[in-house]
């Protein structure tokens, strides 16, 4: 099939391209050329900004469009309107963050979504990300009412992840020191390997599947305390988790993301890590062991030279907090 991918060179799109090439699809990438240009020399690239330069796609047709980087409804509409009669299926990568905070654990694809916000708000942030994605979904279902495929992933992990959410913890537990951990050991965490997601999406694309699917993992629920135990075992070090009370962390006024994967002790937010993935698994989604994802991601981080992290506490700030906590 002929497949257009908007994005496709950094993380989510990169793994998708690799999976689709293995199935011998003909791929066109439409991206700005800011990351990994010419990463796939056998693939056609059209360079342009989706916000204002979608005209570069005019006069072309594809079987499927995969939108990996739609965050603002106005911008998603530009590509959706242009491709309305030019593709048979529009696949939109959304997020599990579209679900309303009042939902109970086990929410399905039919559960209540976040309320929309004013369309003039286009800054993507902690509180606007979910609502904006809801509005992007609305655009896709409006323009492609019968031929849309919307995927709502949980936290995606794998090599090439630019967020460093997992790498932060892997680096910490790779060294024989104390590691500051939020004492919410019973907090659920949902992680999905992008390579598993890509392989599954390739199968959905092959049969031109439509509908909405939660893409969350692993198969069995995992808690934050379980992850810490797995990271300790993975490195076989004497790295000691120091379980710090949520109240202490709250008083420390940490920035959002200072401790990746932690929901800031907000029990009401736990439902966001308890999304049902039954529909996707019934449609063929399979998950590799988390340990494989952890090891491959850590090896990739070492190969890239372990650059400065984009998220999390600095080692100095962590040591400062540990010292304060020991005296409290």
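Q: What amino acid sequence fits the structure above?
A:
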């Amino acid at each position: 099939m002929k497949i257009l991918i908007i994005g496709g060179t950094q993380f989510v799109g990169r793994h998708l391209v690799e999976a689709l090439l293995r199935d011998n699809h003909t791929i066109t990438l439409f991206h700005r050329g800011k990351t990994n240009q010419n990463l796939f020399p056998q693939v056609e690239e059209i360079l342009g900004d989706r916000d204002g330069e979608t005209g570069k796609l005019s006069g072309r047709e594809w079987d499927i469009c995969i939108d990996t980087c739609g965050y603002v409804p106005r911008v998603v509409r530009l590509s959706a309107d242009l491709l309305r009669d030019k593709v048979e299926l529009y696949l939109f990568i959304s997020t599990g963050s579209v679900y309303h905070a009042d939902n109970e654990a086990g929410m399905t694809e039919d559960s209540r979504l976040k309320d929309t916000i004013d369309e003039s708000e286009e800054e993507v942030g902690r509180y606007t990300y979910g609502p904006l994605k809801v509005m992007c979904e609305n655009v896709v279902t409006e323009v492609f009412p019968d031929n849309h495929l919307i995927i709502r992933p949980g936290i995606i992990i794998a090599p090439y992840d630019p967020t460093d959410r997992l790498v932060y913890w892997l680096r910490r537990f790779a060294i024989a020191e104390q590691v500051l951990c939020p004492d919410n050991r019973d907090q659920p965490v949902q992680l999905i390997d992008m390579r598993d997601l890509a392989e599954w999406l390739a199968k959905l694309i092959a049969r031109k599947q439509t509908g909405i699917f939660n893409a969350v993992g692993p198969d069995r629920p995992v808690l934050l305390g379980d992850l810490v135990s797995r990271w300790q075992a993975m490195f076989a070090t004497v790295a000691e988790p120091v379980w710090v009370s949520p109240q202490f962390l709250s008083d420390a006024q940490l920035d959002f993301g200072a401790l990746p994967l932690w929901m800031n002790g907000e029990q009401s937010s736990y439902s966001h890590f308890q999304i049902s993935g039954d529909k996707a698994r019934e449609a063929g989604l399979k998950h590799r062991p988390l340990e494989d994802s952890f090891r491959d991601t850590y090896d990739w981080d070492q190969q890239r030279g372990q650059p400065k992290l984009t998220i999390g506490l600095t080692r100095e700030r962590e040591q400062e907090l540990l010292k304060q906590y020991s005296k409290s």
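Q: And what stands out in the fold?
A: The two ends are 62 Å apart (CA to CA).
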